[in-house]
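Researcher: Next entry in the queue.
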Amino acid sequence: MNRLFFGLLFVLTACSTPAESQPLEADIPQYAASLPDLGLAPELSNDIWLNVDLPLRLADLRGKVVALEMWTFGCYNCQNVMPSLKDWHSKYSGEGLVIIGNHYPEFSFEENLDNLQTAVLENGIEYAVAQDNDGMTWRAYDNRYWPTLYLIDKQGHIRYVHIGEGRYKETEAAIQLLLAEPYPVQ
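Model: Structure for this entry, 186 residues:
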C-alpha cells in the first residue's frame, strides 16, 4: 500500500507543469516572448495627479512602456507590491518606462487627497499617481481587484496583466521585453 501511495504521489508531482505555478527563471524569456496583444488600452481621464506637473495621457506616452497599477494606499497587498514598482521606476524610467499608480479608494478615508498625498510621501513613491475617486479609469479597464498591474506597450496596447502580489521576475522580464521592442517614428 505504501509503495502504491508513494508511486502515485510521484506520478502526480512529476506530471505537474511549470505553467501551473510561477515560471522557473529559465522559462521567463520564453514566457515574455509570447506576450499577447490584449487590445488598445483605455485612455486615462484623471484630473488630479501627484508627482507630475500635468495630467498624463496615454496618447502622449506613445513610444514609452507604461506600467499602470490599480491600487489603494490602505491595501496590504498593494503595499507589498510597492518595493518592486519603486525598483522598476528606478531601474527603467531612464529607458522609457513610465509607472502610473491609479489610486481608486476602497474606503472613504482613502478618498481624501491629503491622506493620499501623505501616503505617497510616507511610502517614498516618486512615480506618477493619479487620484481616481470617481472610478472612471478603474471601470474603463473593467478592473475588480487591488492591486492589478497592466503593462502597456509603446503602441498603446495592453500586453500583460497581473492581479495581486508575486510574479515579480516574470513581470520584470515582460517590462524588459516591451522596452526592447522597436517603436516606429512617424
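Model: The chain is about 35% helix and 15% strand.
Researcher: Noted, moving on.
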